[in-house]
Amino acid sequence: LSVYGVFWMAAAFVVAAVPGAPVSWTTAAATAFTVIHVLLATAALGVLVGAVMQRLSEVESQRKRLVGSFAHEIKNALTGAVGIAHLLKDGRDELEAAEAAEYLRLVATDADEALAIAEDLLAATLAGAGELGVASEEVDVLTEVRRVIEASLTSGSIPITAPADGPVVGVGDGRRVRQITRNLLSNAERHGGERVKVSVSAGDGVARLQVADDGPGIPQDEVERVFEPFRTGSRRHRESVGLGLDVSRRLARLMNGDLTYRHDGGWSVFELTLPLGVVHAPAEARVGDVLMTRTEEVWMGSDGILRTRILPGARINLDDARSGVAAYRRLAGDITRPILIRANSLRFLSREARDHFTRSPESAACLRAAAMVVAGSPVARLIVNNVNRYGSPPFPTQVFEDEGEALEWLTTFR
User: Helices (DSSP H) in 129-258: which residue ranges?
Assistant: First the structure.
């Protein structure tokens, strides 16, 4: 097209520069000019069609690779989960408790892997359509990282370094921060060294999350390529979808942050940065004491609604439930109150604890309604759904993903 355009302009200048040229052209000259014009236009059109066909071929090849890789990884994850599930179903009476627990751990790991792959594919699809969005709110980065590590059931194997003087709060989307964290940990496990470590810090106006491994690192000339789709950063796991780092960087930049890589002191370091948020004082918008139990943090909101935050990784037994309800009663006083339960970090709730929360005279004496916020945690949602199904609370209860909706519902019970 550019050649055609240049020829056409040159011809126009030549014709314009020759006095009387248009009227002095012979039929042969006009015919020759027209033939050249048509040939050049045809050639330009051929180049254009060729470029379009090549691009379509690349897109189709990319699509086939994506679908094939996605199907391969999903099949691997689900095959393991389904196989073990059938083993548990058919042979549960022959398995020792420790064996059953290990099999359940493997099922959960495979299911989490399948969910993460699907989440990355959805994010990549939305990004391609220009529809990928993120929330903008204050995020406790360390809390989100711990949620990911605890959900992966490897909390004991990954050391975490964090400030001792308070939380690191960034501005972004908590769900997307968890997605990025999962991708970085998966990348380190697949393509990194034997040791992995995580650190959370703040400084220079940003909140930082670093995931490092002691692998050989990425050659400098290939660093940016690992953030491209379908790149995996190593020759291992070539069947990987290769969307994780690409999606993670897109999400980081949508949150006004970034995701970068460097090799430092023998460690490969992927660093997520987010704009630094404000750390609120613990007593802000609270009335009276903040009570701590082994598994909960409980306080009274200035709006008259009780609030409790289940601590990360909490496994609640009957004694923990008794301590929690005692804290509710102390703060509620002599009247029943609605309660907001931030349950997204909950990992286990025994049947006895569930019954004490829902059926005991102590809970009935202080609770009027309960809203349980699970915020995207499938484990917490399963547990609290069972509370509603089998606990039969005598007061209204509902499960919410969004805390604002939960509070709006609870205000009708004040």
Answer: 141-151, 174-191, 244-254
